[in-house]
Design a protein that fits this description.
By secondary structure, the protein is an alpha+beta fold. It has 2 domains: 25-88; 92-187. The protein is built from 6 helices and 9 strands. Strands 7-6-5-8-9 form a 5-stranded antiparallel β-sheet, with helices on both faces. Strands 1-4-2-3 form a 4-stranded antiparallel β-sheet. Strand 2 (47-52) and strand 3 form a beta hairpin.
Length: 188
């Protein structure tokens, strides 16, 4: 049995270790990113995301590498560096489907959108609900087989948890062969 995810901080530690599968390349801070990230081999125009370790905390999207330090230090000045981390920005323009799924009492409960924006913004604009066979059919339609298998593993491992994900028209993330990244697993 896998322990429940009881806080955002707990989630981020486990996320960075890869417990939840395919995710965005992620670093704890600027120094760690600088050690790992090689500009010469990075995709041209790669953008970054300064993410918050505090649930529903402020986040900054689409940051070019030349502005990342300014955004990072500005964010850190608010509540401290320990409350933030950096991720490579996903190919948002290639978003097919995204949302969150939870295993309900009798079937899957899915809240989703097909808007190609960062998920937080997209769900504010459009949030559609589906349950049961419709939710399962949508997931099967959009997620590649590897991504769907892994999502089902997470649903089984973390009962009573919402699983946030984004699915793209291309493979993307830390694991080859996946078109879906997991953004968050949290106790529902």
């Amino acid at each position: 049995m896998y322990p429940p995810v009881l806080s955002k901080h707990d989630f981020v530690v486990r996320y960075e270790l890869g417990e939840f599968g395919n995710h965005s390349p992620t670093w704890n801070n600027l120094e760690e990113m600088a050690e790992d990230y090689i500009l010469e081999t990075s995709p041209e125009g790669q953008l970054f995301h300064v993410r918050n370790r505090i649930a529903s905390g402020e986040t900054w999207y689409n940051i070019p590498v030349e502005l990342l330090a300014d955004v990072w230090y500005n964010a850190a000045s608010r509540t401290g560096e320990e409350n933030f981390y950096i991720s490579a920005m996903a190919p948002t323009e290639k978003t097919l489907f995204q949302g969150e799924v939870v295993q309900g009492a009798h079937s899957l409960d899915l809240t989703y959108t097909t808007i190609a924006k960062p998920m937080r913004d997209a769900l504010k604009e459009e949030a559609i609900r589906a349950e049961g066979i419709i939710a399962s059919s949508l997931l099967k339609y959009y997620l590649c087989p590897k991504s769907l298998d892994w999502l089902n593993v997470l649903i089984e491992r973390y009962p009573g948890h919402a699983i946030e994900f984004s699915t793209y028209s291309v493979e993307w993330g830390t694991l080859p062969g996946f078109n879906t990244v997991i953004w968050e697993v949290r106790k529902y």
